Amino acid sequence: MPKTSRSPRPRTRRPQADDRLHYRELTGLWLQWLQRPEYMPLDRWLRKHNTKGSALRQQPALAQAMFQAQRYLQLACALEHQQRQDSELSDAQWQQWDQQWQPSHVEQLDAAHLWHWVQQRCQENWRWPDGFRHYEQRAEIFRQFRDASQRPLSAQWLLWHGIRPSWLSALRQRQEYSHWSDAQLTHWLTQQSEAAPLWLRVNPIANSAQLDQQTIYNELLQEKISVQRRGEHLCAHGGRGIGIGMTNLYKAGVIEIQDLASQHIVAAIKPQAGEKIWDACAGAGGKTLAMASQMNNKGAIIATDLHDYKLAELKRRAKRGQLLNIRSFVWEGNDVLKLPKEIARQQGFDKVLIDAPCSSSGTWRRNPDARWRFNEHDSQELIALQQRLLHLASQSVRPGGELFYATCSWQVEENEQQIAQFLQQNEGWQLLQQTMLGAPEHDADTMFVAQLKRL
Ligand SMILES: C[S@@+](CC[C@H](N)C(=O)[O-])C[C@H]1O[C@@H](n2cnc3c(N)ncnc32)[C@H](O)[C@@H]1O
C-alpha cells in the first residue's frame, strides 16, 4: 500500500473578504445543534433558532452551512480517520470502517475540524482566523482523498458524495426494480450532493387574473427571486430562505411551493371535479392543496393527519389558495375511518391517498440529515406502520374506487414490497401501476406511487 506523502505542505489561499462566515459562528451553531432533542430534523431546528437577534437571522448563510455539514459529516469523519492513518485505505477497508461508523461519532470530532472539511468539500469561502493551525495541515489529505474517490460507486466515491457505502446494496435493489442503468444510478447519487431546486406550482383557483407562466416568471424576477422556467414548470434556487413566502404572488395564493415529484404524484391521481377523496396522511397539505385546486372547488377532500398542528398549517394554506372543498380532522391511524354520511351513502371514497410516513430517503437533497436519522429499528417500525395505514385506509375505498400509496422514499422495502405484501394479504385489489418519480430523470426529490383499484 502506498505511503501517504505529507510534505511539502501546499500553501492554501486564505479568504480575503470580511462578509464571510466565521468558523466561531459555525462552531457555536454546531455545538447548539448537538444539544437538540432526539429526532428533531434540521429544518425544524433551524426554524426554532431563527429568532430575532439570533446569528441565523443575521446571517442566513449559516443555515445553508448547516445543511452542507449534514451532507458531509461522515466524509469529515473519514478524512479525520485518513489523517490519523499512515497509509491510504483500500475500498474494502473503507467499507469496513463504514460498518462501524455511527452518526454520533461526529460528536467526537473537533468542531473546527468538521467545518474545515466541509469548507474544503464545498469550496466555501469562509473566514478563518489568522494562523488557524488546521487549515493547511489537512489540505494534502483532502486532495489525496478526492483523487482516490474517482471510481463511481466505490466506497470512497460514495463517501465523497456524502452517502454511506452501506447504502449500496439497497440502492442496487432500487436500480434493479426501476431498471436504472449504472449511469442513472451514478447520476442519482451525484444529484444527492446538490440541493434540489424549489419547484413552484401555479394554483389556477387563486389565479383569477389568469396570469400566464411568462408573467408570473417576470413578476418573481422583479421581486428578486432567482427563478427559472423549465418546460411547463417554474423553479427557484437558493432554498427556502430566498423569500418566496414574501412575494405578492405567494401571499395571494397564486403560487405554492411543491416538489416536482410530489406534483407528479398528484398528476397520477388525476383528481376530478366532483370526486370524494380522502388524503389520509395530509400533513401540511402539499398534495391536498394540489388536488383541491385541480378539482375546481367541486367535490370534497377529507384531509386527516396524526398531527393537529400540521392540519392547522393546511387550513392556513387552503385559505390563502381560496380552496373551499377541504375538510380536515385528526385521524391517528388506529381504526378504520368513520365515514361521513355522504361518503357512506356511496360505500366509500372514490379515491384514497396514503402518503405514508417514511424514511424520507427520497428527500436527502433537501433534508440531508434524513440520511443519518434512521436506523434499522426505526425502519422496521415504519414498515409496520405503513402496512397498518395501508390496510386500514384501503377499507374506505368504494368498490370500483382507487387507492394510492405514496412515499418520499426510494427504498424497495417501503414501496414495492409493501404493495406486494398488501396484495398478498387482501383480496379484491388490482395493481394498475407502480413507479418511482422525480430523480434521476428530473432535478427533484425521489418519490414512489402505486395505484390500486378495488374490484
Ligand atoms: C409524508 S408526510 C405527508 C406529506 C403530505 N401529504 C404532503 O404532501 O405535504 C406523512 C404524514 O403522515 C403523518 N402520520 C404519521 N403517523 C401517522 C399515523 N399513525 N396516522 C396518520 N398520519 C400519520 C405525519 O404526521 C405526516 O404528516
TrEMBL record:
For whether the record's keyword set contains S-adenosyl-L-methionine, the answer is yes
Q: Write down the superkingdom of origin.
A: Bacteria
Q: Which Pfam families does the record associate with it?
A: Methyltr_RsmB-F (PF01189)
GO biological-process terms attached to the record? RNA methylation
A GO molecular function for this record? Answer: RNA methyltransferase activity
> Any idea which UniProt keywords this protein has?
Methyltransferase, RNA-binding, S-adenosyl-L-methionine, Transferase
Which residues take part in binding S-adenosyl-L-methionine?
A: 305, 355
Segments forming domain SAM-dependent MTase RsmB/NOP-type: 188-455
Q: Which CDD domains match?
A: AdoMet_MTases (cd02440)
Q: Which family does it belong to?
A: Belongs to the class I-like SAM-binding methyltransferase superfamily. RsmB/NOP family.
Q: What is this protein called?
A: tRNA and rRNA cytosine-C5-methylase
- From which source organism is this entry? Bacterioplanes sanyensis
